[in-house]
Amino acid sequence: MTEEWKKIIIRYHYIVVCILMGLLVLGGVFVGSIQTDLNTAEKHFSDTISYIKEQCTGYDNLNLASETKSLMRVMENVQHLCSDIERERELDDSFVLDDAAVAQYLRSYTITGALLLTPEGKVECSASTDGLTDDPLTTDELPQTLSRTTLLNVADHPQQVYAGRVELEDGSYVDIAACARTDKRGVLVVYYHTTEEYVRNYNLSYQNIVQGYSPQVDGTIVVTRGDQIVASNDASLLGTSVDDMPVLAGLKTNGTDGKMLHVHTGWTGPGCAYGVIERGRNFYVYAFRPEAEVFDSTPRNMLFAVFVYAVILFLVQMLRWKTAQRYREQQLRREQEYQKQLKAEALKAEAANIAKTEFLQRMSHDIRTPINGVMGMLEIIKKNREDHERVDDCLEKIHVSSEHLLSLINDVLDMSKLESGHMEPEHVPFDLDDLMKNVRALNEAQVAKTSIVYTYGKISFAHAKLIGSPLHLRQILLNLFSNATKYNKENGTIETYAEEIACDENTATFRFTIRDTGIGMSEDFVNNELFEPFTQEKQDARTQYQGTGLGMSIVKELIEKMNGTITVESVLGEGSAFTVTLPFEIDKHPSAQAAANGAADETALHGLKVLLAEDNELNMEIAEFFLEDMGAETMQAWNGKEAVEAFQNSAPGEIGVILMDIMMPVMDGLEAVQRIRALDRPDAKTVPIIAMTANAFSEDVERSRKAGMTEHLSKPLNAETLKKAILRNI
């Protein structure tokens, strides 16, 4: 076999395969399109019929409610009329009840007419509001109409009232009510006639529902009562019977409630259709469409499928030669991406290791430096105990080193809390004027031992009573002022300003500015590194200025958590200006605070009995020394249980203050406070209880307040802080 024949055979096989695949595709499209059309038609039928069924049921309910109200009205009228007749009889023995008298009564009632019957149903007298003798209920046929009801039974049952509606052949109806007469044995009947015109114009009908549906779009819709067609979007079907139309008859005979059915009277022609039947409360709803309309999209889908298949064959033929090349390019790209990912992960792991190593190195250096200072000064003190001047100098340096170590630990813990998302701002009432006075006092204390000139400026606040996080605002301002002091020059200046810049009904916005004439920072450092952890522009800053490089990171994180902003202006060698903008909620119902009235006099500590709950002997010794040095008396409790028992066994008012550690064995301080506050004695709710703990975060302060603490002090304590806290609360 020659190569030419081989090519012909391969081409023939390819053509045969394409034709077979095309037939399969077209067959699948044909079947799928038919099924889709059927599903679409069934869903459309189902949605349409469900809606019509729901609306018809609603109309029935409304008409039934209207009928009930009308019958209630005629029942009330017949009872009132019966009472009026009895009352007239009692007042006037000569009263004659005849047609004229009945007509006179009708003027006061909204009824068409009234009849007085004997117990056997014979009319004694009657009248109608229009006075016409041909009124449907005043004809000779009335006894026959009444004899078909049970209304005559009320003559023997005075407590019963009959009510019913009679539909007349002209489309109007009459609401009838009857009750036993109270003036004599007999039956009083009243009725209200509703005209055919009123029924046609104001009663809700099924035709109102279906007339908006188009037969070409929604199919033919029919509503029947029994076999009678009472509503349809094809007006020619109104008044005819279901059996008059083969499609409807087929649906009625073979249809399943809610399921689409193929109905035909022959193999082709208009009798072939798809339809659905559903039953309502007292009606049936039909919907159907001819076959040709149901499958109207199938021919279009077939033509579209042929076109798409031809396009696909053309594209496949064109793209076959590119397949191998694309595959090779894809494999190469995947390999490159995989190598890039490996490299990125390696760099990331390396950066993490470097950051971890640098952090440990920084912490090792920063922690060892003050510890080395403390240990060195202690050695000097041991060898120079008689040199009091040198000992005092060493003690002062030990104090400075310990404060630096505490500041370092606080900064690291604050940064850790902020990065982990565990530090949340408080939401408590505070007075901004009081807070700024406190910050100003602390700032003045910082610069007191330096040559720096400090100036404080404040524009009067329109809103000083606020709700927010005073603890974090204080920390932000003190951190910025500490940096302005630490990085300032000899005889430099620091200026601070506070002002309210905007407010609305609920929120006031404040701007705090701290400007110094210090060493300043470069523009590149401000823009790229200032707020990064452990960054300082000068390499010797950690040694020269005793900084950790965490302060500005903490400040920025706190400001962002409080929905504020910070901006920095700095010139290297000239100074810096930090502007903080923070919004606070306005406290519309500020409460008076006893602490704002000033602390008690220091002499109040003399003889004050303090219950001291502390499980650490060293801390107990230090606290006892502070208290006794102030002139107070102490009672020891080594855990929360002992503290509760000591307070419980004391006389009311004997213990003036309780200092409570939180982390203690047997019973912790929070539980001890709750138990003390729950004791049944007059001073249990009022005795000041001050937390004295190493738990220093804002959430720790909040837990202390919720437990019943009066105030929260963080360790390490100093005598002045402890004294002020006690004086504020006694």
Describe this structure in words.
With 730 residues, the chain is α+β, with helices and mostly antiparallel strands. The protein is built from 20 helices and 22 strands. Strands 11, 12, 13, 14, 15, 16 and 17 form a seven-stranded mixed beta sheet that branches. A five-stranded antiparallel beta sheet has the order 2-1-5-4-3. A hairpin with a 2-residue loop joins strand 6 (220-225) and strand 7 (228-232). The longest helix has 89 residues, at 3-91. The radius of gyration is 49 Å and the shape is flat. The termini are far apart. Mean pLDDT is 82; it is low at 539-545 and 593-599.
Features:
single chain, 730 residues, alpha+beta, 7-stranded mixed beta sheet, 20 helices, 22 strands
Describe this structure in a few short sentences.
It is built from 20 helices and 22 strands.
| Oligomer class | single chain
The amount of beta strand, in percent, is 15-25%
- Low-pLDDT regions: 539-545, 593-599
Helix percentage range:
40-55%
* SS field, number of helical segments: 20
**Could you give the distance between the termini?**
117 Å
For the residues shown, what is the average pLDDT?
82
Task: Report the C-alpha radius of gyration, rounded.
Answer: 49 Å
Largest sheet: 7 strands, mixed
Q: Structural class of the secondary structure composition?
A: alpha+beta
DSSP, total strands: 22
Shape: flat
